[in-house]
Automatic annotation (TrEMBL):
Name of the protein this chain belongs to: Isochorismatase
Keyword terms, alphabetized: Hydrolase
Pfam assignment, any one: Isochorismatase
Alphabetized InterPro entries for the sequence: Isochorismatase-like_dom (IPR000868), Isochorismatase-like_hydrls (IPR050272), Isochorismatase-like_sf (IPR036380)
Span of domain Isochorismatase-like: 2-183
Top-level taxonomy: Bacteria, Pseudomonadati, Bacteroidota, Chitinophagia, Chitinophagales
Keyword match Hydrolase: yes
Keyword Disulfide bond: no
Organism: Flavihumibacter solisilvae
SUPFAM superfamilies documented for this protein: Isochorismatase-like hydrolases
């Protein structure tokens, strides 16, 4: 189970980025579905890996050769800033004993310059389920890289959100099938997991 960027700034109604996610997050019941998936994973003994984005600081990307507009916006708005409430994991997704927190990724891919691949291999894991944020950026980039590295990839289409329905459509209808082995709803995933007990 890869839990991507479960920060207050994304998931709490007072978070800096929540207003941009609000319509979709509420329509798909994001918090409820993420909680169901992560809770079931823990009950079934499925390892939970936190895949966190770099917590921003005002000096981030200074003198970088090619920072993206998203990176600069994150820096300027101080979304999930280091040592702040917004850069803290949401209360519903606090790490539990046995969970693994991966090194922070700087852009969108949870594998790039982190220990995610090493940790998965050390735990003899070759199938990943992705939930969290954002569907068309970090979820997609991490899922695509997982496939490239030989992992079986499952996307949970109502346990993630994006800033627009077009982005959700791109993530799950257009791009998802090019790298994911399964794209399921929360209920479909839970049914499969419970049947394998």
């Amino acid at each position: 189970m890869l839990l991507v960027d479960p920060y207050n700034d994304f998931l709490h109604h007072e978070g800096k980025a929540y207003s941009r996610l609000k319509e979709i997050a509420e329509a798909v019941h994001l918090l409820e579905n993420m909680s169901k998936v992560v809770g079931e994973a823990r009950q079934l003994g499925i390892k939970v890996f936190y895949v966190p984005h770099h917590r921003s600081e005002p000096t981030d990307y200074m003198n970088w050769k090619y920072p993206t507009s998203i990176q600069l916006s994150t820096r300027d708005r101080q979304v999930f800033a280091k040592d702040t409430w917004g850069g803290t994991f949401h209360d519903d997704f606090q790490p539990q004993p046995g969970d693994i927190i991966i090194k922070e990724h700087w852009s969108q891919n949870g594998f790039a310059n982190t220990d995610l691949d090493q940790q998965l291999k050390q735990h003899d894991i070759d199938r990943v389920i992705l939930v969290g944020l954002i569907a068309n950026t970090c979820i997609e980039a991490t899922g695509r890289m997982a496939m490239e590295l030989g992992y079986h990839v499952t996307l949970v289409n109502d346990a993630t959100a994006a800033y627009s329905w077009d982005h959700m459509n791109a993530a799950h209808q257009l791009n998802g099938p090019t790298f994911a082995h399964a794209i399921l709803s929360t209920e479909e995933l839970l049914e499969i997991l419970r049947a394998r007990k």
